[in-house]
């Protein structure tokens, strides 16, 4: 329940942030696309969210991409601008989808929560954009042998 609340609040934050933006906001957006895999297999119906880092609204609007049957996505802002803002982004990836009216879960989470709640994934969007913003996710955590190298 805690994760559902976090995701709802995060989604609401993204929508509010985009609502405060406008076309011609002065930021540079570059094309971003890639492939998401889980254990080497294409990840279908995932949301890849790009949260610009920086001070408040000085970093640009967030962008999202939805993966297709081959795990491919193309990033766009929520108001339809192609790409993501140039600069550093925190990345979150989730499969869970909520009904916009009732906030009920209509598609459950199918990947580990670590990828959508403090994933630690980052991407720097450069002035040339990228078509290789790929993310290779693992369904199980890495195991440590306990031995020191």
Question: Can you describe this structure?
Answer:
The chain is mainly β. The chain has a single domain, classed as Immunoglobulins (Immunoglobulin-like), CATH 2.60.40.10. It contains one helix and 13 strands, in the order H-E-E-E-E-E-E-E-E-E-E-E-E-E. The protein has one helix at about 1-20; strands at about 30, 35-40, 40, 45-50, 65, 70-75, 75, 85, 85-95, 95-100, 105, 120-125, 135. Strands 7-5-4-9-12 form a five-stranded antiparallel beta sheet, with no helix packed on it. Strands 2, 3, 6 and 13 form a four-stranded mixed beta sheet that branches. A two-stranded antiparallel ribbon has the order 1-8. Mean pLDDT is about 80; it is low at about 15-25.
Element layout with pairings:
Layout: H1 2-20, E1 29-30, E2 33-38, E3 41-42, E4 47-52, E5 63-66, E6 72-74, E7 76-77, E8 84-85, E9 87-94, E10 97-98, E11 105-107, E12 121-125, E13 135-137
Parallel strand pairs: 2-13
Antiparallel strand pairs: 1-8, 2-3, 2-6, 4-5, 4-9, 5-7, 9-12, 10-11
Q: Which range does the strand content fall in?
A: 25-35%
How many beta-strand elements? Answer: 13
Mean pLDDT: 80
Rough outline: globular
Number of domains: 1
Main beta sheet: 5 strands, antiparallel
Rg is 16 Å
Provide a quick synopsis of the model.
The chain has 149 residues and is mainly beta. The protein is 13% helix and 32% strand. It has one helix at residues 2-20, and strands at residues 29-30, 33-38, 41-42, 47-52, 63-66, 72-74, 76-77, 84-85, 87-94, 97-98, 105-107, 121-125, 135-137.
